[in-house]
UniProtKB/TrEMBL annotation:
Keyword tags: DNA-binding, Transcription, Transcription regulation
Highest taxon of the lineage: Bacteria
Limits of the HTH araC/xylS-type domain: 242-340
Record GO terms (molecular function): DNA-binding transcription factor activity; sequence-specific DNA binding
Taxonomic lineage: Bacteria, Bacillati, Bacillota, Clostridia, Eubacteriales
Protein name: Ligand-binding sensor protein
SMART domains noted in UniProt: HTH_ARAC
InterPro entries: Homeodomain-like_sf, HTH_AraC, PocR_dom
Length: 343
């Protein structure tokens, strides 16, 4: 797999993400902030309560807040699900991991809520303890009104909101990655420097997904370049065989057998072969290679696609086999053909 960048702020439109986060915080009745995989905030705090805002501005207590964020984020990654916990002031917070294709990209930190009195909290961990209990008591006394104003949610509500944020945030970010990945795949096909400059922003993705998107982008571009040539060629065929040629065009990257095209034309393989030879003077297998070499010539003339990618896009298993067939048809290798094109 290619080396990729894994920073959320290189994938997301942070201005739009901030607006979404602000709305989610209001709807969820929780404060929310997004951090990257290093634990560094990439957004402002949405709906941060007055108590936590003032605590985080105090250099004596900020390290405890950061310790909570860091430890909870690691626990969320370890379990691959939202991690609910108590902070050093007995406030409920949640670390919601952003994990795409088994890669940790960051987390959405939510919470700043209290549980109702006598709510069962068995199993919830307290992430940090303030070493100077007198100092903590003094802070609570000073900010008593702000502490009492912190929203209250039941444990079940916290769990439901956490799961909703987990699913929603991962879905949105995965969609953003896929969009960026499509740009990267397009760049690899076109070799366009203006687009390639953005490829460093792509986050790692599954091999199968990359292959799928790459194939779709490649097929789309190839269709655009060889459409004119194909339109001219297809008109020479009778209505009986034309569906087979159309199929070849629509499935350029596949291996196409005589059995497949004869079934498409609703005739037997032997009858297809006779009719095909009668119309073209060539056997189907030889004509198929000849047609794909013609496609390859168009791509060499009109694009900067590398030879191995052209070979793969036209359904050849091995580049060496493609080069061999190309040389038989044209007398030169694809590389020599490309070099001899008029500037």
């Amino acid at each position: 797999m290619k080396k990729v960048h894994s920073s959320l702020n290189n994938v997301l439109d942070l201005e739009k993400w901030q607006r979404l986060q602000d709305s989610l915080a209001v709807a969820a009745k929780m404060a929310i902030i997004t951090i990257d995989y290093k634990g560094i905030p990439i957004t402002d705090h949405s709906s941060c309560c007055d108590f936590c805002s003032q605590v985080r501005q105090d250099p004596k207590f900020l390290p405890y807040c950061l310790k909570c964020d860091s430890r909870a984020g690691l626990e969320a990654v370890r379990t691959n699900k939202p991690y609910i916990y108590f902070c050093h002031f007995d406030i409920i917070d949640v670390a919601i991991p952003i994990i795409i294709d088994d890669k940790y990209l960051g987390a959405v930190m939510a919470g700043q809520v209290k549980l109702p009195p006598n709510e069962i909290t068995e199993g919830l961990e307290r992430m940090s303890y303030i070493s100077d209990s007198k100092q903590a008591s003094n802070k609570l006394s000073l900010l008593r009104n702000e502490y009492e104003a912190i929203p209250t949610l039941s444990y079940e509500q916290v769990k439901s909101v956490s799961e909703m944020l987990f699913q929603l945030c991962n879905y949105i970010i995965e969609a953003a990655l896929e969009k960026q990945l499509a740009i990267d795949m397009y760049s690899s096909v076109t070799q366009d420097d203006r687009i390639s400059s953005r490829s460093e922003k792509i986050v790692g993705y599954g091999v199968e997904n990359i292959k799928k998107i790459k194939k779709e982008m490649s097929d789309t571009l190839i269709d655009a370049y060889i459409l004119g040539t194909f339109d001219k060629k297809i008109t020479i065929f009778s209505p009986l065989l034309r569906p087979a040629i159309e199929y070849i065009f629509m499935h350029k990257s596949e291996k196409i057998s005589l059995k497949t095209v004869s079934e498409i034309c609703h005739i037997s393989p032997s009858y297809f072969s006779r009719m095909f030879y009668k119309e073209t003077g060539e056997y189907f297998s030889k004509y198929l290679v000849k047609l794909k070499v013609m496609f390859a010539k168009d791509l060499l003339e009109k694009t900067e696609m590398p030879i191995n990618q052209i070979s793969e896009s036209l359904g050849f298993d091995e580049v060496s086999y493609f080069i061999k067939k190309f040389k038989i048809q044209t007398g030169v290798t694809p590389l020599v053909y490309k070099k001899n094109l008029p500037k």
